[in-house]
Amino acid sequence: MKNVAHLIGLKDLSKEQIIQLLERAEYWAARPTEQADILRGRFVANLFFEASTRTRFSFEVAQKRLGAHVLNFIPETSSTVKGETVYDTIRTLEAMGVEAAVIRTKKEGLLQELAESVDLKLINAGDGTNEHPTQCLLDLLTMKRQFGKLSGLTVAIIGDLRHSRVLGSHLHALPKLGVNLLLSGPATMMPAHIPQGVKIVEMEEAVQTADVVMMLRVQLERHAESLYLSKEEYHKAHGLTLDRAKMMKSGAVIMHPAPVNRGVEIHTDLVECETSLIQTQVTNGVAARMAVLETLLKGSEMTWESSLATATY
């Protein structure tokens, strides 16, 4: 990771770089209350141009646990309402000594554009329907801690695939790590491009064969048209119902990047059931984001080295 200036997407990272981040995330996950001064005196800004609960607060907790000074940008009270561009906002923060910016935006490719002309570290907290790399990393961390490995697992991602930036990152990361990826969902919600080796299957096959059943929220805010099914009809046709959950094989788990639409993509009784790792994902989000922040901001000074023990992944 020493040669990586930003975390814009997992598409840009090698298998070894992803594993290095996961190894450091595992370090922090094993120390859930530890405070550090690794980023003491460093300034990090969170710029969220879209609503967020888990990602925004998870980053802030991660930043503060590492000892950083945190600036939370509020678009409604900033100069962006006067017409200032995001580029000029970033340059302003840079001039003040801010060293990293965590950005969530509706505009796909914005961080890539900014990366070509700014010096501070950029971390993608979700751009449009493109990628959400830290969500993917925390998902991978959750799977690794649950199963002890990633390679050889079968993961089914089900739901609104076309509009999911979480899927955008998993499409790049899971195949690199030797994971068998299955996709299932309404035909109208399929992604435009599916990498070679990724299989599209029916809902029942996905649920019955996967080690991880990952449900996705129907993102109505990104649909140009209204959902052609009612919430009840969607749940019956494409949701993880109680009956479908009974089809899951022994040892399989339920995941969801959240927020959850209870009774739509997943039955409310399954959100916190014994096989659900949804809250565990939230917990692991802090560790994954600590690993990203630490690696990007302290990369040239890091004293730890990744073993790159790919056999365990």
UniProtKB/TrEMBL annotation:
It holds the Pfam family OTCace. Carbamoyl phosphate binds at residues 54-55, 104, 132, 135, 258-259. Residues 6-144 form the Aspartate/ornithine carbamoyltransferase carbamoyl-P binding domain. Transmembrane segments: none annotated. It catalyses: carbamoyl phosphate + L-aspartate = N-carbamoyl-L-aspartate + phosphate + H(+). Residues 152-295 form the Aspartate/ornithine carbamoyltransferase Asp/Orn-binding domain. L-aspartate binds at residues 82, 165, 217. Pathway: Pyrimidine metabolism; UMP biosynthesis via de novo pathway; (S)-dihydroorotate from bicarbonate: step 2/3. Gene3D superfamilies: Aspartate/ornithine carbamoyltransferase. GO terms for biological process: 'de novo' pyrimidine nucleobase biosynthetic process; 'de novo' UMP biosynthetic process; amino acid metabolic process. The keyword Cytoplasm does not apply. Its EC number is 2.1.3.2. It comes from the Bacteria. Heterododecamer (2C3:3R2) of six catalytic PyrB chains organized as two trimers (C3), and six regulatory PyrI chains organized as three dimers (R2). Catalyzes the condensation of carbamoyl phosphate and aspartate to form carbamoyl aspartate and inorganic phosphate, the committed step in the de novo pyrimidine nucleotide biosynthesis pathway. Belongs to the aspartate/ornithine carbamoyltransferase superfamily. ATCase family. This is Aspartate carbamoyltransferase. It comes from Brevibacillus brevis (strain 47 / JCM 6285 / NBRC 100599). The lineage of its organism: Bacteria, Bacillati, Bacillota, Bacilli, Bacillales.
